[in-house]
Amino acid sequence: MVKPQSVLFVCFFLVQFSFAQDQVALQQGIQLEKAFKVEAALEKFEVVIKTDPLNAVALHHASRMLSNIGGRMKSEKRSLKIELYEKAKIYAERSIKADPKSADARLAYIISLGLMSEIAANPREKIRNAKTIRNEAEMIVKLDSTYAQAYFVLGKWHYELAKLNWLEQLACKFLGGLPDDISMDASMKYFNQAIALDPDNILYLYGRASLYHYRDEDLLAEKSLNQALQLSPREPDDIQRKEKCSQLLSRIRKSS
Predict the structure, then answer these.
(1) Structural domain of residue 223, as residue ranges?
(2) Which tens digits make up the pLDDT trace of 89-113?
């Protein structure tokens, strides 16, 4: 007869062994992500999720990888993009449920919603996501006032909505409206806050340059773009972001 103590020992050993394997896979995924090997990183994160469905870290990293993969796909692959963004959203929601105080989980959620809004088929979907994105970004700031990404999201939020033309604004009114405090000045304030916290971030510098260009302040836009182009990529998306910086800089110089 097997002793109860022996069964407990075996169970404890198996749990510890599984946990150790998950930690190894998680760290491998993070290293692959840093090396911009997004698909390989996703595989590692999903290995962890399979054995530990409530692993908040693996979930929000997997969500970010799915968003990255979908974001790099061509526009004609819309159905596949939607599928990836929906899965990214589900992973992010599960991560938030597992760890409600995780700013990284909420950022992953925001990114999935933002990408879904970019390819949304109707204004109602875009507006609904816009409200959620702002609420989540403000929640992140409450959780961590030094979380630069949240300020960038708020800057981008104001920038995109302040650019709406009168017809789009009219449609928004019929669909429930938008807050009255949307403005380019608020956008600039938030972009500057993000850059103050993380001055060497290509995305933040590109966002501020886009706003400067929209306001016909092209000398300041060029300064931000040149600063961004001198930086080395830190994230998988930074390579594409630098390309966007170069393209915007080229348009500005051609129009001057």
Answers:
(1) 199-256
(2) 999 999 999 999 999 999 999 999 9
